[in-house]
Write a structure and sequence with these properties.
Blueprint: H1 4-18, E1 23-28, H2 41-45, E2 50-56, E3 59-64, E4 68-73, E5 79-83, E6 91-93, E7 107-113, E8 118-122, E9 129-134, H3 158-165, H4 172-177, H5 187-197, H6 217-235, E10 277-282, E11 285-290
Antiparallel strand pairs: 1-7, 2-3, 3-4, 4-9, 5-6, 5-8, 7-8, 10-11
Helix pairs in contact: 1-6, 3-6, 5-6
The structure holds a DNA duplex (16 and 16 nucleotides).
Length: 295
DNA sequence: CAAAGTTCCTGCGAGC
DNA sequence: TGCTCGCAGGAACTTT
């Protein structure tokens, strides 16, 4: 599930362990994840220090002393765990609970740092990816160049959304899932944000367009809903979903706060709504919504 | 069977 | 008529 809040949670967990540290050894156990690793991946990392750890959309970006940037995406099932020498078992970062060492078959990369800390990337489905790119080429990188604004940045506002939505016949669900519209939302947070905004996922995106030159109330509500749900999810450490192996404290709790996601047949949690959460498929993905209060 | 993500492809219809 | 664009829908990657 790693959507923006989960990736941000992982970034924050990783930051104190990586920034200022040098890679001593990088163990790459297979030639590819979703795509082949870049040429000389391990060698280009070894000996370099991490100068900063950033996030863009669902990507973690590690800036290196070599003026290259390590791009890392968790895909659907990617997890990172940190092990410190003499400090007990490895700690899990982010949404999935993962018992390090219990699934060595899918430990694809191990980053060993000079202070003895190691960071392990585990990804059973291998939809994740990593790349290395020169710092000054990051904006034009294939995976970065089409991304829309960060939803928590000021540039993402009702005016922007209205302009972008004008004339679009795609439905709101697809419009918001599109990383070119806004970067970092996925299936869960789109469902939750639309519910909070009281908007049907099947509405046409053009319903957000400017009306007599001004952003609509709908667009304002949607922007606020997106911001709120993401901020609350980050504060809760993201969401932790199914198929985990062990519970040991590394887990987010936002899933306990879902209003609609994965709640088909249950009562809508909006105060005094009384509707039942429904599920339908849009663009091949499940959409959860309340037909009563989302119009 | 369904799953948190993204890319790529085909085919259709609108508009220039 | 032909071209381009946006969009819908599907397949693909893979494992549990």
């Amino acid at each position: 599930m790693p959507e923006l809040p989960e990736v941000e949670t992982v970034r924050r967990g990783l930051e104190p362990h990586l920034v200022g540290q040098r890679f001593r050894r990088v163990i790459q156990r297979r030639p590819d994840l979703r795509w082949p690793f870049p040429k000389r991946f391990a060698e280009r990392l070894e000996g370099q220090a991490v100068t900063a750890l950033r996030r863009r959309a669902k990507y973690i970006l590690a800036e290196l002393s070599s003026r290259e940037v390590l791009i890392l995406h968790l895909g659907m099932s990617g997890r990172l765990s940190v092990a410190e020498p003499g400090n007990g078992p490895a700690r899990i970062l982010g949404d999935y609970i993962y018992d390090p060492g219990s699934d060595p078959h899918h430990d694809h990369v191990v980053f060993e740092m000079q202070n003895g800390t190691s960071v392990t990337f585990n990804d059973p489905r291998r939809f994740g990816c990593m790349d290395l790119v020169a710092e000054d080429k990051i904006e034009s990188h294939k995976l970065m160049k089409e991304l829309g604004p960060e939803p928590l940045a000021n540039s993402f506002n009702a005016q922007y959304l209205a302009k972008r939505a004008a004339g679009r016949s795609a439905d709101l669900k697809a419009f918001l899932m599109d990383q070119k519209t806004v970067a970092g939302l996925g299936n869960i947070y789109v469902c939750e944000a639309l519910h909070r905004a009281g908007l049907s996922p099947s509405r046409k995106a053009s319903c957000l367009a400017l009306a007599s030159g001004k952003p609509t109330d709908r667009a304002e509500r949607l922007v606020s809903a997106i911001r709120d749900v993401l901020n609350e999810a980050i504060a809760a450490g993201g969401s932790t979903l199914r198929d985990y192996r062990k519970t040991d404290g590394g887990k987010g709790s936002f899933q306990e706060t879902f209003f609609v996601y994965d709640r088909e047949g249950e009562a809508c949690l909006r105060k005094a709504c009384g509707g039942i959460v429904k599920r339908k498929v849009q663009g091949g993905r499940s959409t959860f919504y309340c037909g009563a209060c989302q119009r």
